[in-house]
Write a structure and sequence with these properties.
By secondary structure, the protein is of the alpha+beta class. The protein folds into two domains: about 60 residues, no CATH class; about 60 residues, no CATH class. It is elongated, with a radius of gyration of 21 Å. The longest helix is centred in the N-terminal third of the chain and has 9 residues. The chain has five helices and eight strands; from the N terminus they run E-E-H-E-E-E-E-H-E-E-H-H-H. A hairpin with a 4-residue loop joins strand 4 and strand 5. The protein has a four-stranded mixed beta sheet with strand order 2-1-6-3, covered by helices on one side. It has a two-stranded antiparallel ribbon with strand order 4-5. About 20% of the residues lie in helices and about 20% in strands.
Length: about 160
């Protein structure tokens, strides 16, 4: 089980194991806001199994601009969906091929399925008569959120309404 960690200002900070969350609660660094499953049993005490915890002290988070694009980042940005056919994406494609002067930037890379990537090869979209479903761009304000929040646990939903 994973646990959502909220900063002292109730903003999502990270997702940790329930064991790590229990340690934070036991040491007095956090409070349990939502419980999940049976309690954690120690020789002297029963502790609630945390699903969401709130840190007592605010942790300053440095939010940087998105760095250089990676396969994982492109697939996450495009929600694992092919930019050409809307199928399930498993690779990344250069919209303007590198052989034609295209660079490896957020604006030139899109998620792509294997068959579309093979069909496209080193041709441009104009040569194929294809178009993109979306305009590729660098991720914005929510790029720093943990990847586990892409498919959140149902107990986390009330705490994430203002984060998106």
């Amino acid at each position: 089980m994973r646990t959502l960690v909220l900063n002292a200002g109730y903003e999502p900070l990270s997702v940790v194991s329930s064991r790590r969350a229990a340690v934070l609660v036991m040491r007095g660094k956090a409070s349990v806001l939502a419980e999940d499953g049976g309690p954690i049993v120690s020789p002297t005490t029963l502790w609630p199994r945390p699903a969401v915890i709130l840190l007592h002290q605010y942790v300053r988070v440095v939010r940087r601009r998105p760095g250089s694009p990676s396969r994982r980042g492109i697939l996450r940005r495009d929600q694992q969906s092919c930019a050409y056919c809307s199928g399930s994406a498993d690779t990344v494609d250069h919209v303007i091929p590198r052989s034609r002067g295209g660079d490896s930037s957020w604006e030139n890379l899109v998620a792509c399925c294997g068959p579309c990537n093979l069909r496209k090869g080193d041709r441009t979209l104009g040569e194929l008569g294809w178009s993109l479903r979306v305009t590729p761009r660098a991720p914005r304000h929510h790029a720093w959120l943990p990847q586990e929040l892409d498919t959140p646990h149902e107990l986390w939903m009330p705490f994430l309404e203002h984060a998106r």
